[in-house]
User: Fold this.
Amino acid sequence: METRAVYPGSFDPVTNGHIDLIQRSSALFDQVIVAILRNTDKTPLFTVEEREEMLKKAVCNMKNVSVTSFAGLLVDSVEQLGASVIVRGIRAVSDYEYELQMALMNRRLSNRVETVFMLPAESYSFLSSKLVKEIAQLGGSINGFVPPHVEERLRSKFRK
Ligand code: PNS
Assistant:
């Protein structure tokens, strides 16, 4: 039976750390669906459509990876997408507490869905969308942190 995994997140914007994790998951699971959260308390820099476009371009060479967006409870979307696994990245111990809480709560909400924690390459362990946005806004170099097309989108956002 095919194993389908969902990799959820804000992806505002996608970083090379996210892409590394998508690549690793695509080697483990038959299908990987990257799912962008629609409803959030955070005010995103990019619209869902912009984030989806950037993600699609970043994964266009990965045959078993698709990109979508979701609203409401993650476990509901995971089941609707016919998936049984949630993939989350752990960069450092500091991520673990929040991720553990979320994984246990999701398991309580649906026992048909398992969370799998994955580690990105060590070289991305300090990388986050939040820091990348801050550096770009302050005029620093984000080369190597995001794909070139995302770098360009960040630059033009902050030029305005
Ligand atoms: O990239 P992020 O912002 O850390 O991703 C967080 C995300 C999208 C995985 C989380 O906020 C989420 O799953 N939201 C959907 C609402 C939900 O299901 N909440 C209960 C989680 S226990």
Remarks:
- The mean pLDDT is 96.
- The pocket of 4'-phosphopantetheine is lined by residues 8-10, 37, 73-74, 102, 105-106 (CB under 6 Å).
- The chain is about 45% helix and 20% strand.
